[in-house]
Every structure is written in structure tokens, then in C-alpha cells.
Amino acid sequence: AIPVTVRFFAAARAAAGADIQTLTLRAGSTVADAICELSDQSEEMKLVLRKCSYLCDGVAVRNSGTVLRAHQTLDVLPPFAGG
Q: How far is 42 from 50, CA to CA, in rounded Å?
């Protein structure tokens, strides 16, 4: 199993009820697997995650099939308004 730190921002933080969470995933898990596990936490979370973009260790995730490694950080970023 591998630990992955998930940081939530804006609406994702509200849905999660926390700023940060540690997921324990099986080795070989992808960003999509992490999103699926997070989506299972609540209907609100599932709705928010559909609209989010993701950063893995500060780099934009363009492919949800990206394999996660132990101790990486996954940022969950909902669309932001403003300018």
C-alpha cells in the first residue's frame, strides 16, 4: 500500500470537510483510482470532483491514468471565479 496526501481547495475543501487527507492506495493505483475513492465519500464530493482539475506534486495531471507513487501530493482544484 502507498500513502498519498490529498490537499483540497475551495469547494473541494468544503465537500471534504478538511484541508488535507491521506489516502492509502494499493501500489500501481492511478489518479483515477484516487478520484474514485474520494468520490465514494459523499454525493457532494462526487459532484465537486467531476469539475475539478488536479496537480500531482505541483504538475498538472493531463491523464487520469497517471500512476501515483508513495508520498506524492495530489491537489484537488475546483474551477475558480474571479480575476
A: 13
CA dihedral 44, 52, 79, 43 (to 10 degrees): -10
- Grid coordinates given for 79: 474551477
pTM: 0.92
Q: Provide the b/e sequence for 59-79 (b: ≥16 CB within 10 Å).
A: eebeeeebebeeebebbbbbe
- The rounded average pLDDT for each run of 10 residues, N- to C-terminus, in the chain (83 residues) is 97 96 97 97 95 96 97 94 54
Inter-residue contact 34 to 3 (CB < 8 Å) = no
Helices (H) and strands (E) in the chain, counts: 3, 5
CB 51 within 8 A of CB 15: no
